[in-house]
Design a protein that fits this description.
Elements lengths: L5 E9 L2 E9 L5 H14 L6 E6 L3 H4 L5 H9 L4 E4 L1 H16 L10 H9 L18 H4 L3 H12 L6 H13 L25 H13 L8 H23 L7 H13 L5 H11 L22 H10 L39 H6 L18 H11 L6 H14 L2 H4 L3 H12 L10 E5 L2 E2 L1
Parallel strand pairs: 3-4, 3-5
Antiparallel strand pairs: 1-2, 1-5, 1-6
Protein name: FH1/FH2 domain-containing protein 1
Organism: Frankliniella fusca
Length: 449
């Protein structure tokens, strides 16, 4: 039997390409092992010279200053890269922080005892016996002037294609939670809860929305204090968290989206405890407000022109002597997070932001023109195309995990040679790498067994 101790699905992405380079078993998930495998793969595939950015989750093994894989990959390539922390991972950490503090801490790979109880009871429940939050006296006032906008947003996004079934499920549950039937003219239906890994994107909020609406009728019983906390988490999700989640894959708007989310968290008055917990988590993951990565915002077509003019001026401002740790923005010592309540994106730009354009090999002549004229400039158009090709979520690598797991059980029946198995995985990925790219991005994820 082929046991997976630590497997690294590795993709390279560019304009129109998501190519699996390999999914090898590593002795451990250390930064050294990961970096060595990545460097080997990109050399083997002949794309090392074209790598401009790397995307991954943010554990210390990937992002540690001295021994993290991302930094060691830079050393191996002998140049700086743009680091794009997986935005779904960042957002999931916020939710995990809320659940761990307000509901229950997961002590196993599964999400938790409460969710396991819902799963066990599901088949015996009356799935028509629920109430939406719009009939919950604890939620009515908060939702009164917000519901219409949230419903419109969720309904619009439900019409779009989604790469994962749980992304659709979450939108469906959001609408049901707000008293809307997303299945019209058919009746409301629920997907049965399944066993969920504690690392699964959005598994917690899917369960919490479900528990809330069935607990209101007593169809599913929950302790009052836990239910009250679940209600607060759900209100935070639909009002503040939903839109950032479904725009997480857009690299150009990532800096502005993260700053807006941070400010919304700081200004969230419905439940001060939610604001405190979410802010404490998010302040450690301001990757897209880093002085280099914030360069993405120059291509954010929703930013006001005046803001972009200020950003151009800020490119001349010297980098402060006390700079952030590797690849993420950190407030200076003894500076409170609330100091970011009223700042704009230009606050994070300085002369180090010029490195973004250098790493991405961009012609910056458009910066000499007024931002109103940028869309007409060939240099801006080319830069925008490069930015839009970047991956700032590692869902593609998560699909690589699923690919490897699907074939793991039959590996020995297919071939006993590791190299042949790697070739099989690449063929199953269905997209062949052809030629090189002006810029490419590495996307990686780990899983253990």
């Amino acid at each position: 039997m082929w046991l997976l101790h630590f497997t690294l699905p590795l993709y390279v992405s560019g304009s129109g390409v998501n190519q699996l380079l390999g999914a090898r078993v590593l002795p451990s998930g250390s930064g050294q092992n990961t970096a060595a495998e990545v460097l080997h793969c990109v050399e083997e595939w002949g794309c090392a010279d074209d790598i401009a950015a790397e995307c991954s989750d943010t554990p210390t093994g990937n992002t540690g200053y001295n021994n993290g894989a991302a930094g060691l990959i830079e050393k191996g390539l002998q140049r700086e890269l743009i680091f794009l922390a997986c935005r779904h991972h960042i957002l999931e950490l916020i939710m995990k922080g809320l659940f761990d503090k307000m509901v229950e801490i997961s002590t196993s790979p599964d999400i938790g005892v409460l969710f396991k109880r819902l799963q066990d009871k599901w088949d015996s429940m009356d799935h028509s016996n629920f109430k939406p939050a719009t009939e919950d006296t604890a939620c009515i006032a908060f939702l009164a002037d917000r519901r219409e906008d949230i419903v419109a947003y969720a309904s619009e996004n439900l019409q779009k294609p989604h790469t994962r079934a749980d992304y659709r499920q979450l939108l469906e549950l959001t609408l049901i939670f707000l008293g809307v039937n997303p299945f019209q003219p058919e009746g409301i239906r629920f997907r049965p809860p399944i066993a969920l890994s504690s690392a699964r994107f959005m598994g917690r909020i899917i369960y919490c929305l479900t528990i809330h609406i069935f607990a209101l009728t007593g169809e599913f019983e929950v302790e009052k204090d836990i239910l009250d906390n679940i209600k607060q988490i759900n209100l935070f999700f639909v009002s503040t968290y939903l839109k950032p989640w479904y725009t997480a894959s857009r690299p150009a708007s990532a800096p502005a989206t993260d700053l807006r989310l941070l400010q919304d968290i700081l200004n969230y008055t419905q439940c001060p405890r939610v604001s405190e917990i979410a802010g404490a988590v998010f302040k450690n993951h301001l990757w897209y407000l880093h002085r280099t990565t914030v360069g993405l915002a120059f291509f954010d077509e929703k930013l006001p022109l005046e803001e972009k003019r200020e950003m151009v001026e800020r490119l001349k401002v010297p980098t402060p002597k006390t700079v952030s740790p590797w690849k993420r923005h950190v407030l200076p010592a003894r500076t409170h997070l609330s100091t970011l309540k009223d700042v704009s994106i230009s606050h994070f730009v300085n002369d180090s932001t010029n490195n973004f354009f250098k790493i991405m090999k961009m012609d910056t002549s458009f910066l000499q023109e007024d931002p109103a004229l940028w869309p007409e400039q060939t240099s801006y158009q080319n830069g925008l195309e490069k930015v839009q090709a970047l991956q700032c979520i590692n869902d593609v690598a998560e699909r690589g995990v699923a690919l490897v797991k699907r074939f793991t059980g039959v590996k020995d029946a297919l071939t006993k040679k590791e190299e042949c198995f790697q070739d099989l995985l690449v063929v199953q990925n269905e997209i062949l790498l052809e030629g090189k790219y002006n810029s490419a991005i590495l996307t990686l994820a780990h899983f253990e067994k």
